[in-house]
Specification:
CATH class: Alpha Beta
Structural class: alpha/beta
Order of helices and strands: HEEEEEHEHHEH
CATH topology: Nucleotidyltransferase, domain 5
Distance between the termini: 12 Å
Number of domains: 1
Radius of gyration: 16 Å
Number of helices: 5
């Protein structure tokens, strides 16, 4: 609580870019809870500042960080699609929605589904490959985002000094 009190005078900046392009950052921390369940964080922005953010413990156990990240993408996909259709209904031109991810194996699975599977990922349930259809239709683009730039990292791990400073967060 004391950390939140220290931020009460910080300004909240929201600023849309000229394109009105939604960007989504999705990150997972594998097996960090006492029951070994993972934690996922998602942030959505239209330019500067988070318009939507959520952080939650997963309901199921995953067997790897790749699987935890893929489950996180699947869980946020309904919100991504709702936002996409809402923006379209408001008259904004549709570009592929950018989804930033820091796990290259997850990016490959999201783009290629089971075609990118290996012995370590064959067990992943087909329902977590729902993202593949949207990538194939060029409605969602999964983009690599280095871990150091991953905004959603703030929602999955304890705040680390260098990361929060790089993202402009001070206490």
């Amino acid at each position: 609580m004391k950390y939140l009190q220290a931020t009460q005078d910080l300004p909240l900046t929201l600023e849309a870019d000229a394109v009105g392009q939604a960007g989504w950052w999705v990150d997972a921390s594998f097996g960090i809870h006492h029951d070994m369940k993972s934690h996922t964080g998602e942030i959505m922005s239209l330019g500067k500042g988070a318009l939507y953010a959520t952080s939650r413990r997963k309901r199921l156990n995953t067997r790897s960080s790749t699987e935890a990240e893929l489950v996180g993408i699947n869980d946020v996909l309904s919100q991504v699609l709702w936002t996409r259709y809402f923006m379209e209904s408001q008259g904004y031109p549709l570009h592929p929605t950018k989804l930033y991810q820091d796990n290259m194996s997850t990016i490959l699975l999201g783009k290629n589904s089971k075609a990118s599977s290996s012995k370590c990922t064959w067990h992943i349930d087909i329902r977590y490959f729902f993202i593949t259809d949207w990538v194939a239709n060029k409605e969602i683009e999964i983009i690599y985002c280095p871990t150091g730039d991953m905004l959603a990292d703030l929602l999955t791990k304890q705040l680390q000094g260098s990361l929060s400073k790089n993202l402009g967060i001070t206490f």
